[in-house]
Amino acid sequence: MGQMLLGLVVSIQLIHTNANSFACDTASCAQHDRWEPVSFANSTEVCERLQLKALEDFTAIAPRMCRDWAAAGLGPWGDCRKTYCQALADLAGNLSHDGRNLYYGGDECRPLVNFNQSLCETVYRDAEGFCECLCPTLARLQTASVGDCETKIMSFLFLGRRGVELAQKYGLSGYCSNFLCEYFTMLGEPDPPYPIAGLPPVCKTLDLPWRLYNCIDLLSRKPYTPEPWQTPYPEDSVLECTDGTRHPVDIDHIDTWEVCTTHRFRWRCPQDFPIMCYDPYRCSGDHCCKQTVEECPMGERVASSMLALELPEWTGKWTPDMEKALGPATTLDPYQQFLQNLRTTSPAPSFAQQIADYAWVGTALLATIGLTCSCLACYYMGMINASYMRKVVIGPARLLNAYHADPVTFFASGNLPRNKKREAPLPPMRPAHEIEEERKDNEAFAALEDAWDIATLKGMRHLVNTARDPDPFQAKLLRDAISIARARGLQARSHVAGLLQKGERWLNTLEAEKELLQAIEDARPDLRWVAQTRLTQPPILGKPWHATTLSKVAEGEVRKTGWKHIEDLRAAVQAERLLASLVARTHELPADRCVLDPDGEGVKLLPKGQHRAVWHITGDSYTFNEGANMGGDMGVDVLPPKDLLGDANIDDARPVCAEWAKRSTCKAGRECPWRHCRPQAGDSIRECILFDM
To answer: InterPro entries, from UniProt (predicted)?
Structure first.
C-alpha cells in the first residue's frame, strides 16, 4: 500500500511540474532546450541555403496538389500536414550541427530549431490552418501574372511568420498583400452578405484579418507586427485608425467613437482604454476599446494563428483552447490532491459484485452449449462432403463418365459423325489495304467531328471583329477536315453529309461577315466627301479648273470610285443606316444607276452591275448588265424586282439647324426646314429661315 501511494504521488508530481505543457523529453519539446550558434564563417550561408531548399521542396508540390485535390472534389490534400511538418522537420534537423545543441545562421534561424514533428502533425494550429483551410480553398487565391506574388505569399506563410528576422526577410509588399487580403476576406468574414458555399468550418476559427485595408496595412507595414493593437496609442482619448489618422474621442459622446468607420476601421485604442475586444461588430460595426479584459464579452482580440510570430505550442506549451478545456494547474501539493480523491464512505455493491460468486456457472453453461452446437455443425457438413466425394471423385461414376466420354470407345473407327457446319470453310481474311482504308475513313470522320465541335465553341455568328482579322484557327481545322472527308468520298454517308453541310455553312458565314466588314470599312471614309461638290484640286493654282471638261472627267472618276464602295455596301444588308447616309449625302447620284419607281414612289437605285443608258440619236432609254454584249429593248426599262431596288432618301442630306446645334432647341419647332440633330462630319449647318409674322 505504501509503494502504491508513493507511485501515485510521483505521478501527480509529474503532472504538476508539467502543468500547461506537453510531456516531452525537453521543456520546449525541441531536440534541445539550450541552443548555441556555431562559430563557422559560412554559418549564415548554410542557413540561407537550407531555407531555400525547404521552400523549394514545399512550394514546388503543395500549391499544385492542393488545387488538384480540390478540383477533383476530393477535399483537403491527404498528405498536406505530413508534407508540411516533414519539410519543417528536415529544415530544423539540417540546421542542427551534428545533432548537438549548435545551430547555423544566428538569430535568423534560431526560431526554426524550436520544432517537434509529432506536435506539428497533431497540435500545431498553423499546420492545421494551412492544410484544413487554405489548402482546399487555394484556387480562390488569385494573383497577377507579374510580381511572382504567389511564391512570395507561400514563402511568408511557410517561413516568414516564425520569427522577427524571418518576417523582415520574407515580408510582403502592399502589392502582394492586396491579393492575400482579398483571399482572407473571402475566408474569414464572420457574417458575409453573400456566403461562399463549401468553405471549411475551420477557416472561421483562424481569426484571419478579413477587413481588406486593415489586412493590407497589417501585412505590409514595416516592421511586421501581427497584433499592433496590443500597444495602445500613447495619448488619452485619441483613437488611431487604419489609414494613419488620429481622432479625439469622448466617452460622454458615443458617436465620436464611430470616426474610424470612414477611415478603414480602428488600428489602436487610446491609452486610457487600452484593450481591444475580440468581437468585430459590437461597437458600431468595429472592435470595442475597453479598460480591462473583463469588460469584453468574448475576450481580448488576438492575432491570427496563421500570422502570429510565435505560438505557444512551438515551445511545448498548451494551446489556448487546451488550457480552457483542461483548466488551470492546481496549487495543491500532491498529498492533498490524493486525500481529496479518497472516498469518505463505502458505496453500495453493484449488480456485478452481487452476482460475482455465481458468474462461473453461467460461463460454463454457455461454453458447453457453444461447443455442442459446433460439433453438430461439423458432423453434418462432413457427411455432406463425404457423400459428394464418393459420387463424383472416387466412386465408379467417375470411371463410367470417362468411358462414355472416350470417342474411340463410343464410336467405331471410321464412323465418326460429320458436322457440315463445323467443316465449312472460314470466311476469307480481310486484306490489309481494306483495313487501312477503313481506319483512315474513321480518322477522317473523327477529325471532322472534332473540327465541327471546336467551331461551334467559337459560335455561329460574330466570328470576326474587323475585316483585317486573320481567319480563326477553327476555320483552318474545318477546311482541312472537309477537304479530307470529300477526298475520301465520305459525303455519300448520311451522318457525314450533315456535318459537311453544317461545316460549309459555318465557313460561308465567316466569309460573308468578312465581306460585310470590308464593305463597311471601305465605305465609311466616303461620308466625308460624298456631300462635297468639288472633289479635285486644280493642277496649277490660279488657273481655271472646276468649269473645265477635264475637271468634270476627273471628278466623275472620283465619284465612280466612291459609288463602287456604295454599291458594295448595298450588298451587305446589315449596313443599311450607313448606306442610307452615304446615298443621301451624295451631291450628284450617277444617272446610269437611277430609275423611276414603277409605283410612283420617287427615284430608285439599280442593283450592282445593272446600268441605264440613253441612245444619243433618238433619246430612248434602255437598261443593260455590266459586261454584257447587248442591252435591253429600246424605250423599255426592264427593271429588276422592286425588293432589289435601293432607296434614294435625301433626308440625311438636309443641313443641320444652327440654333438646334447651339442650344439643343429651335423656336420654329416642326416648321423648321432643317434637321434637328447633332452635326456629324460632312454635314452643313444653316440658320433657321422662318420669320415671325
So the answer is: Znf_CCCH
